[in-house]
Design a protein that fits this description.
With about 240 residues, the chain is α/β, with parallel strands linked by helices. The chain has a single domain, classed as 4-Layer Sandwich (Purple Acid Phosphatase, chain A, domain 2), CATH 3.60.21.10. Helix 2 links the parallel strand 2 and strand 3. The structure holds zinc ion. Zinc ion binds next to loops.
């Protein structure tokens, strides 16, 4: 099985399309695993939901998905995120709303647990430190956990003796069973925050037990233009250029 693992699309259609093209060029996928935040920030929420739903996929809910359909409030969002969320809510069809409301907070599939934030707190917690990762390893029962939310591609490893460490994910990561347990964040498709503006995703090849991380250039200007046309907050437009 080939699995495309991605998250934080954030209504960035140009980035999402570029990632799907890249996956196709690498032989395609059997299933797409989406780690939430399909919408929010970006200019094409409806089109991104449609494109995702056209793929064989499973998806967990992100905080922006839940906020866009009123399942959580936006009081913890910064001003730009809250404004974008209100705009997003107005772009969604009744069918989009039903889809987002139906997303689970947590999924398990083939030895992986999938959540948006963390297994301990799927909606809000960021797993960006070894301390946070260490605490979270006891909150899932599978060997591997996939997370999004921070928009930073990272892998945290817990070895058999309980030691835990983290590193930026790049290239191939081995998932040989019986060794380390891992928490993997493939980075963000639609709003990278690690200083690299290219879209970020991973492919899992179950026959080789490896996750390969990729970066994909896309037409950032096209997304920015759509955001300006729709009067989305300027800081959100600019950050796509810097990838932060
Ligand atoms: Zn996000």
């Amino acid at each position: 099985m080939k699995l495309a693992i991605l998250g934080d699309i954030h209504a960035n259609l140009a980035a999402f399309e570029a990632v799907l093209e890249d996956v196709e060029a690498r032989g395609g996928f059997d299933e797409l695993w989406c780690l939430g935040d399909v919408v929010g920030y970006g200019p094409d929420p409806h089109a991104c939901i449609q494109l995702l739903r056209g793929c064989q996929h499973i998806c967990v809910a992100g905080n922006h998905d839940l906020a866009a359909v009123g399942s959580i409030d936006t009081s913890d969002f910064n001003r730009e995120a809250a404004l974008a969320c209100e705009w997003t809510a107005r772009q969604l069809s009744a069918d989009d709303v039903e889809y987002l409301q139906g997303l689970p907070l947590r999924l398990e599939r083939s030895g992986f647990t999938m959540v948006h934030g963390s297994p301990r707190e799927p909606v809000w917690e960021y797993v960006t430190s070894v301390a946070a990762a260490r605490d979270n390893f006891s909150h899932f029962g599978t060997d591997f956990c996939l997370v999004g939310h921070s928009h930073i591609p990272l892998v945290f490893r817990q070895s058999g003796d309980g030691r835990c460490y983290g590193q930026q994910i790049s290239g191939e990561t081995s998932l040989a069973s019986g060794r380390d347990r891992l928490i993997i964040n493939p980075g963000a498709v639609g709003q990278p925050r690690d200083g690299d503006p290219r879209a970020s995703y991973a492919l899992y090849d179950s026959s080789r037990h490896v996750v390969h991380h990729y970066r994909v250039s896309y037409d950032v200007t096209a997304t920015q233009k759509r955001m300006v046309e729709n009067e989305l907050p300027l800081p959100l437009v600019l950050r796509l250029y810097y990838g932060c």
